[in-house]
Amino acid sequence: MHFRTLLLLALVAVTPQACAPKAKEVRPNHPLPRGLDTSRAEPGRRGGVFIDSTPGEPSTFNPLVSEDATSSGFIGLFLDSLVHNNPVTQEVEPGLASRWQIAPDNKTFTFHLRPGVLWSDGHPFTADDVVFTFQAIYDPRFPNRAAFDLSVDGKKFTIEKIDELTVRLTTPEIYAPFLETVGGVGLLPKHELEPAFRDGSLLKAWNVSLAQKEPRRLLATGAFRLRSYQPAERIVFEANPHYWRADAQGVRLPYVDYLVTKLVKDANASTLAFATGQTDAEGLSPDNVAWIDRYASRYGFSVFNRGPSPNTGFIWFNQNPGRDTSGKPFVAPHKLTWFTDRRFRQAISHGIDREGLVRGVLFGRGQPLWGPETPANKKWYNPNVTQYPYNPARSKELLAQAGFQLGPDRKLRDRLGNVVEFTLNTNQENQLRANMATAFKENMRDLGITVNLSFLDFGTLVGKIQDSYDYEAGMLGLTGGGDPAGGISVFSSKGRLHQWYPNQKTPATPWEARIDQLMSDQLHTLDYPTRKKYFDEVQKIMSDETPYIYLVTANAYVGLKDRWKNIRIPPLGSLIWNLDELWTPLLTP
Amino acid sequence: MTAFILRRLAALLPMLLAVTLLVFALMSLAPGDFLTPVKAQRDINPALIAELQKSFGLDRPWYEQYALWLGNVLHLDFGYSWTYKVPVAQLIAQRAPATILLSLTSLLLAWTLAIPLAVLAAARPGGWIDRLTSAAAYFALAIPEFFLALLAVWMAARTGWFPIGGLTSLDHDFLSPSSKFFDIAYHLILPTLVLGLGGVAGTLRVLRANVLDVLQSEYVTAARAKGLSEKVVLFRHVLRNALNPLLSTIGYAFAGLLSGSLLVENVMNYPGLGRLVYEAFIREDQFVVLGSVVVGCSLLIVGNLISDLALAWSDPRVRYGR
Predict the structure, then answer these.
(1) What residues contact residue B245 under an 8 Å CB cut-off, 6+ apart?
(2) Which CATH number fits domain A37-280+564-581: 1.10.10.10, 1.10.10.60, 3.40.190.10, 3.40.50.2000?
(3) What is the pLDDT of residue B43?
(4) CA-based, 20 to 30 A from A132: which of A228, A501, B197, B313?
(5) Quick one: which of A458, A270, A73, A128 has its CA closest to B33?
(6) What kind of architecture, by CATH, is found in domain A311-554?
């Protein structure tokens, strides 16, 4: 009998399996809202399923709790905000607010909400929801990330309801990235979440358990609403029947009926799912492009080069003059003298063969990087920073000026006769970075400098950089892009990620003081050219003083199935940011 | 009997205490903590990090954290998952069914294949069935489960005969109930084979030795002398007595399957406890790790208890009393 069961199982194995969900449901046809937004994209046809995959799991569907990009990405699909940042133009566009005014004091913003917009349960969306959201964010019972993003020098914004469809937000000081940060705030439904707000359980609301049991209770204003969530398997979103955008022919967006995201274990599994034709879109790392491209015609996809990614990679020296609790200096005093000497850092920078790194490590898919922003950040990138092309002769010259001498044993010594040697720490999880560290070691050997490499677990490395400070040099990367305000913790000398010497009480050097001033000035004006001028100078100083020795930036690649129309690939951020406008003439993949 | 059960369950307490204490100490020794990835992001305010640290109790020494956790456990509160903001018990209950399902199908596979094969092999020691099953069993025992899992995934990807991981298809939500059942069965085939194969081999070797032992008994000779058919002798008289030692290992087998499924689930993308626990370890989501350790230990003890009881039920010579 058991054998018969097995036989049955074997039979099931041969029956063909359908690959894509077949929609059996008819989408409800609610009247369009008065404040409708009409898409300027080419009108398409409804239907189809968009499939993608993501490494890991969402940890929550509550925007007040979310701290990781995966969760925030899913939340952004169903919770809409007052305004949007268009990643292609990098301009702010209307969202749930159709228009807004900025008062002459540059601190008061009046938002006019779209009339007639409904939540996915049919309840009207009004100014009360906006006010409720800000109340929840600022409530000290619910510590959350947005509360810090939405304040200036620890002071909150004030919000008032003018009428059912008008709200006014006031910032205590002029706050440059106001529209961008407000743009990121997903607005919460007051009628659904007020009980949780009252009894203090708001941070536990909209967790993964609820998403699994009652997905429809996660109310949506965005293009999609949650349909089902199977932990470790998939998330299915369906078109929000009350979405407030339509195309030129009056067809309510989104065109696709369902959005299915496979939850896979890691980035490799996600890449593999795309390469074998199982998913529609995938961000690809430069070392994977060549082999994936070979499957392009078989599975009907194309690989696009988005140009330089916003990710930076750099080396820095620990310039922290402090001592640990036992009185031992974090960095040996003679080494601290080298590290704080600008000529030493510039010599190192001239000694790095960045073209070689691009060729050898990134297979030619990248470019040298000279400053804190990559060209991907079109709006803020300063191309006129100081560059340090590969030039060992110039390195030796600078080192000689700083009193270093190359001995007959081909070892570099400082004025006092100390052999120049340091340990470079980086995290072991990132293979490309490990390869770069090895190439760097070779480059330094040519200058007579001995570099010891230490590959650490990411947690250990962060501990060294941020808590114990007992290291000499580090190599890491940061995701740049976006508004300069996001870089304050890096550039400002008080900053936590000012890694060469974090959390300074007063700026250690005049140029750090100058950067502090510029970062503060750019934050307190709304005028883009002025801000750009300030931030350009910050980038210039960073390249002159080279506290971070920037290395290379890899190009970003995306793969996308050819069946999708209305694709517009932005240089930064999510590939499918305009998912509501995508459509396909081929309903099955 | 009740006293015996109670005594065994009471023994669970000191063990759980020791194991959780060890896990807690080891986790506090490991570099970094749950907030490390947050600290490495450039636009997170230090005040928020301090607040989170305080709300998670990460600003206190580990023994204090442990004492707090223990106090809550006494009220049957296993804590919240920091990642998911969901009670640990609820999270484990969410993921456990898939793992238990896989363990049960694997156990079923092991027994349904191993029992007839072992009896047939022992009936003619040195015969071709015996030699073939022995060779296959040694081969199966020698392959680590994770490697077998990798092979299975590779095979599935190359041939397309089986799904590459998961428990359900993309269109599972849209299927009829019977199709849903077959969909799950189809997805279970490979993980069951991978996890069950080692079990088949192990059970086969143990049972074959037992059957050979029992075949020497006088009552077997008596049964044959009575003129019973060989089939009846083997399956009714020999097998019954040979199964006893196997019953006593079922608890270990079950616990072993659970720990084996941790590897297999991660390789095969199977949505069970294994992936949850692995991710919790990587993220240092303390209470989820502790909760799963408690569940694992309890299962081991309870599994052993059940096999002892089963033994008492099937073998009249075994009696537990004072």
Answers:
(1) B206, B210
(2) 3.40.190.10
(3) 67
(4) A228
(5) A458
(6) Roll (3.10)
Question: How far is it, in rounded angstroms, from Cα B268 to Cα B263?
Answer: 9
Q: Using CB atoms, which residue from B171, B185, B269 is nearest to A22?
A: B171
Distance from CA of A160 to the nearest CA of B (A): 26
Q: Would you say residue B116 has pLDDT above 50?
A: yes
What separation in angstroms does the CA of B150 have from each of A288, A377, A522, B146, B196?
Answer: 21, 41, 54, 6, 15
Tell me, what's the pLDDT at A8?
Answer: 41
Looking at residue A587, the DSSP 8-state letter turns out to be S
Residues B174, A22: C-beta atoms closer than 8 Å: yes
The domains spanning A37-280+564-581 and A311-554 adopt the same CATH topology: no
| C-alpha B286: how far from chain center | 21
Q: Is the dihedral of CA B124, B129, B133, B134 positive or negative?
A: positive
Give the residues of chain A that fall short of pLDDT 50: 1-21, 23
B283's tokens: 């993220």
ipTM above 0.90, yes or no: no
Dist CA A232 CA B98 (whole Å): 11
Domain range list for chain A: 37-280+564-581, 311-554
Angstroms from B321 CA to nearest CA on chain A: 37
User: Most A CBs within 10 Å: which of B27, B35, B82, B84, as the mutation test of the A interface?
Assistant: B84
Position B285 scores a pLDDT of: 84
A492, amino acid identity: S
A262 to chain B: which residues are within 8 Å by CB? 166, 170
- Entry pTM: 0.81
Exposed e or buried b for every residue in B127-165, given b needs 16+ CB within 10 A?
A: eebbeebbeebeebeeeebbebbeebbeebeeeeebbbb
Can you give the length of chain B in residues? 322
